[in-house]
Every structure is written in C-alpha cells, then in structure tokens.
Amino acid sequence: MAARGIKYGPARSENTEPFSDLNITPLIDVLLVLLVMMILTIPIMTHKVPVDIQPGESDPSTATVHRIDLNANGSLTWDNAPITDAALPARLAGFMKENNAQLQIRAAATARYERFDQTLATIKRAGVTRLGFVGNERYAKFGDL
User: Does this model's pTM top 0.85?
Assistant: First the structure.
C-alpha cells in the first residue's frame, strides 16, 4: 500500500474535506456587548453621597434629639410633624444653631433609595455632622436572607 503525501499550501478546489476552523466573530460580538454593559452599569453601582459623620462628644442624656422620618410614600416628618422638602433646609439651619443637638434619620423599609439619597444630600448641604441612622438593625442579617 502506498503512503499518501500531505500537501501544505493553499487548498485546491478538488479538496472536499470539511473546514475545521472556528468562527470567533459571534464570540467577539458577545464580549463587546458585555463590555459595554459593564461600562454603563459601573457608575450606577458606585453612586454615593459622602457624609462626614464625627463621633459625638456630647452627653446623650442631655442632648436634644430631632428625628427625620422618611415614610414609604416619600413624605418627610420632623419630630412626628409633616414637613415639605422646601422647609427642610430652614429646619436644618435652625438645628445647626442648637448646641448639644443630634439629628436622627429613619427611613421606612419600603422607601425608595432615590428619595433617601435626596434627603441625605440636603442634610449634607446643610453641614450637619451630628447625624445618626435609626432602624438599621433590620438589615443586620441582610446577607443571610
């Protein structure tokens, strides 16, 4: 039996063997779409409002505590009295003039994050540093759900 030689070079038209190279164009298209999606979603995930909170040096038993509640429907209350968004900066300015006063903020579990973020940004613009977050205990086991 005679051995057949293997020819290297361009394929001739009489060669009927199947083409075994992989077409990677769809793979590259999918990778580019994933890259674009990551580029679009990363700024959304890194959005934050930096708030400079400093440890309290006052006596909590003698401190005047004011509380802002963010309800599930997005409305605000200041010490259990309804307050509008327009009136909040004036209330915060009055709070800043009080000595030994603390501000606490509590958001309902079903309140929108965007609304909480807006309220927190207003508090930051007022220069509040004596701020406490109330009700975060319910999120202590958030990862265990």
Answer: no
